[in-house]
């Protein structure tokens, strides 16, 4: 069935799409200055996460930008994680009519600034510098203007495009997409989902899962000269670490078969001791040692199975008399949408038509919000104007040429996926 549908799409593209591509691209190119200005305004709102601030202001700007372009939006309030934190807000707008939905989904929170002044946008030729320029406020704007171009062009769509802007992605998404997913919000009627993460030109059709834990080992404090009365939590922790190192040696043998560069990045991951703390002073037997572990699983592995392996490891340590507990800090599933599904092919075709280059499908080495959709059977992909290597860093930037290109790609892809003719099987 996959092949038949691909063939039909190729035929319809060669008939009408080149002209549509030109018209959409021309419209979007004409919006370049407005797009740049909106990205600048978004960068100026420092939605730093952690801790998750200025969300109300940023959601309000997104809603007013939508309204100014003629799109009604709705703001969904999400309760604050604790009384001292701000509420979370998601902004959603839809364009078109019909049962099927193509979802353009992105996050508006950013990681904290790496350098002073990063929330003041700065230009260097075509490159716009500032926190969130690459990850991913420029992507939100590209998606918004893609929808505007389709509307202004009067492109016929059998279905709706949903723009969904969420908070809290940078800290795991529990109070953003996780909350919306639990409410049944995300996958409703959705036939494909696209996320403008900074993918550096490739398409991410899969992501690694994560199990992040804080491990606490308890001992008994004592003065150094009476150390025989104490239990050294640091040395007890080493016994736990030795077990973890044996597990790491085992999981490192498992390499993903998906495309991932460089080759050394293929093995499954267990990072031990990203954060470590123990004791109070050099002359006191440490009563407590805490350290983190970060297990990153390949799409070929099973999250529940890997979680069970870790739980068993700590159980065994406890049976050996070590006072150890492990608290889950974050858990996220891996995901994989095959690169030959119709949605993947529509994206690949649009990338090729706009950039002239073949789309490369790769595994994202980190967590991605495509997982919330893929978990419910929705084909989900990340493709955005930014560059991964500069995101989260002091010199984060995006090239406006790429923002304009991506907007055209999004528009073309949605037009193809929601094309009224021929009646594609669902
Ligand atoms: Zn991001």
Poorly predicted sequence stretches spanning 5 or more consecutive residues: 1-14
Rg measurement, Å: 24 Å
Main sheet makeup? 6 strands, mixed
Return the string of H and E elements. Answer: HHHEEEEEHEHEEEEHEEEHEEHEHEEH
In short:
This protein has 426 residues and is an alpha+beta fold. The protein has ten helices and 18 strands. The protein has two domains: 2-207 and 334-417, Aminopeptidase (3-Layer(aba) Sandwich); 209-332, Alpha-Beta Plaits (2-Layer Sandwich), CATH 3.30.70.360.
What does this structure look like?
With 426 residues, the chain is of the alpha+beta class. The chain has 2 domains: 2-207 and 334-417, 3-Layer(aba) Sandwich (Aminopeptidase), CATH 3.40.630; 209-332, Alpha-Beta Plaits, CATH 3.30.70. The protein contains 10 helices and 18 strands. The strands form 5 sheets. It has a 6-stranded mixed β-sheet. The protein has a 4-stranded antiparallel β-sheet with strand order 11-13-9-14, covered by helices on one side. A hairpin with a 2-residue loop joins strand 4 and strand 5. Helix 8 crosses helix 10. 43% of the residues are buried. The model is unreliable at 1-14 (pLDDT under 50). The structure holds zinc ion. Residues 107, 135-136, 169, 197 line the site of zinc ion.
